[in-house]
Each structure stands twice: as C-alpha cells, then as structure tokens.
Amino acid sequence: MSQPERFENVILGSGQGGKLLAWYLARSGQRTTVVERQWIGGSCPNVNCLPTKNEIWSAKVAHLVRHGAQFGSKMRTSTSAIP
Which pTM value belongs to this model? Predict the structure, then answer.
C-alpha cells in the first residue's frame, strides 16, 4: 500500500478562482492540490456562459457556410443575422 500524500492546501474546484488560488499558493512554496469533481477549468468553459458560446458557434457555422465550396458544398446565398 502506498503512503498517503500530505498537502498544506486542498482547493475544491478548478474554476477560475480555484485555479488562480492554487497557482498562487504553489508558487509561494506551499504544497497544494486541486480536487475537481467534473470539469477541469470549472463549468463556464465547458457548459455554461452560453451567450458567448452561442455567438462563437454561430460565427463558426456562418464562416463554414461562406467557405463551403472548399468542402464541396455549393450554395446560392449565405447570410447570417447574429443579434
């Protein structure tokens, strides 16, 4: 059986705050670990912050449609109305 590891700090969650705190503590010489239940980086870059994600996805789709000929797709018109 392996020896348990010991840490001075345990950060719960790797979101923006947890990540920065862990970096700060580790750089100051403290033995630090991060425990993340589900999403590395927190929920925002993975599933939340939807308005931004929707705008980025819509722009990507519009770009691909405009350049569809490069992929063998031909369309008569290509417009987008992103509010």
Answer: 0.50
